[in-house]
Amino acid sequence: MTALIQIEHVSKFYQMGGETIRALDDISLNIAHGEFVAIMGPSGSGKSTLMNIIGCLDVSDEGVYTLDGKQIHAMRDTQLAEIRNQKIGFVFQSFNLLPRLSAYENVELPLIYRGLTRKQREPLVLQALEAVDLLDRRKHMPSELSGGQQQRVAIARTLAGDPAIILADEPTGALDSKTGIEIMDIFTRLNDQGRTIILITHDHAVAQQANRIVRFRDGRLVH
Fold first, then answer.
1. Model confidence pLDDT, tens digit, residues 84-140
2. Any idea where the ABC transporter domain is (predicted)?
């Protein structure tokens, strides 16, 4: 497998009360096409900061980040937004569904922002909902769905955009263990289909389902 993500000597600083905090301290990490990587570490260890940089939501203060052959760290905001739109999908612990939209409409919304016509959107939305076994719940509102079903809608929303990379930040954190296993089964299946999965978790059982575990402490890579 060739490297999809190359992070070389990346550091990120924040100013707090006149003190410089190193959120990331000289991180080097490669992630190959089709890998399933779990990122673990205590709160404040830098894992979410790294996820934001990988997802083009933020840029490093030092070092080089190369994504699929393109140097990301030097890009403008508009270029970063284009990369996010084309290559990266996000799944969060809190689902981030719009309560007044149905499951179908929540999945459809990013495609509307992309400028796709209704005829272009419909098969993508239906295919994404089918991939997470929620086609029969497509007209339901988020309040009518369980937590696990809401997370599956969030995953379908990401899948509809056909991202090469899925970044999942504690995707099972708000779910019971049985439902968490069901969600992880979906991620495993997506990885088997060739998608690169990068997942933040505090749960060792969840992390064990990845191909590789990366551990952080105090802004540094420790394993």
1. 888 999 998 888 899 999 999 999 999 998 899 999 999 999 999 999 999 999 999
2. 5-222
Looking up residue 54, the CATH number of its domain turns out to be: 3.40.50.300
Displacement of CA 98 from its chain's centroid (Å): 18
Which stretches of 20-163 are DSSP H helices? Answer: 47-54, 77-87, 103-113, 118-131, 147-160
**The total number of structural domains that make up the chain:** 1
Closest CA to 75 of 93, 54, 56: 56
Q: Retrieve residue 179's tokens.
A: 């439902």
Q: Taking the chain, what is the end-to-end CA distance rounded to the nearest angstrom?
A: 21
Distances (CA, A) of 78 to 34, 52, 160: 27, 16, 22
* Residue 190 C-beta-side C-alpha neighbours within 13 Å: 31
pLDDT at site 223: 67
- Is 180 in contact with 151 (CB distance < 8 Å)? no
Q: Which residues of 83-101 are buried (b: 16+ CB within 10 A; e: fewer)?
A: bbeebbbbbbbebebeeee
183 phi/psi in degrees, rounded to 5 = -65, -40
Picking from 40, 13, 5, the residue whose alpha carbon sits closest to that of residue 166 is: 5
Pairing verdict, β 165-169 and 62-67: unpaired
- Predicted TM-score (pTM) of this structure: 0.89
What 3-state DSSP class applies to 44?
A: coil
Which backbone phi and psi does 203 adopt, to 5 degrees? Answer: -95, 115
Beta bridge partners of 38: 199, 213
Beta bridge partners of 13: 22
